[in-house]
Amino acid sequence: xxxxxxxxxxxxxxxxxxxxxxxxxxxxQETFLRxxxxxxxxxxxxxxxxxxxxxxxxxxxxxxxxxxFDEEHVLTQTLGTPERVALKMAMDxxxxxxxxxxxxxxxxxxxxxxxxxxxxxxxFVMSKRIRRITQALKEKL
Length: 141
Prior knowledge:
mainly alpha
């Protein structure tokens, strides 16, 4: 496992969850610290890293007061063109798990087998689910 490559993947995954660069950096670092404490997971390193990162992001989000989230700031920082705004709105309409699957597959470029393993389903089931989600996104756009 190449740490630099995995670090970038995990950072972008955390950024997707947290929408704040400094928080994503903190959680990414904490993810690798926790991973390094468990060398027995080397055979499934990336899958384990994503699980740690996901749990840390969820914990971080639980600690943020709801009124401190500035969605307008996030939108102006991350979006520009009308197409990107439409995509953001379509993605936001998806259930959290479906949105996470799309981010893992198309933003982070993860293999279907890795995503399927994370969610405890077969590759076939995950492939079919990804097709269903992308079809729903196309219909909204």
